[in-house]
Amino acid sequence: MDHTFLYDGDCAFCTKSAQFLEKHVRTTAKVVPWQWADLDALGVTQAEAEEAVLWIESNFQEAGPDAIAVLLRRAQWYWRPIGWTLSFGFVSKLAWPVYRLVSHNRHKLPGGTAACSLPQAERDRLAGG
């Protein structure tokens, strides 16, 4: 299985962040919105995909800032120190509250939209799906 990095494709802030990754952080991962991914084939539930960004390998999965750390460790040499630093226990523990703060307020950030603050079921209902 290829490496896959899942993000929320309905969120403009997340999409802009993923576009930055694709443009500036060369990685072996497919960077794909979870809404377009075959979650069953990846072994991921929709709830897991909605909760945080995910790094998925055949026998390995990380979420949130830990997923970002893996992605950076697997990128060009100059991103790797950031990824390793983010992986340190105390840094990772500090990164999670920051990640949650950003993810819960992403609709207020540059590029964010109201859809960023809604769970998928609510987005589907509003879209008539």
UniProtKB/TrEMBL annotation:
Please give the InterPro entries that the UniProt record associates with this protein.
Answer: DCC1-like
Q: Name one Pfam family in it.
A: DCC1-like
The domain of life is: Bacteria
Q: What is this protein called?
A: DUF393 domain-containing protein
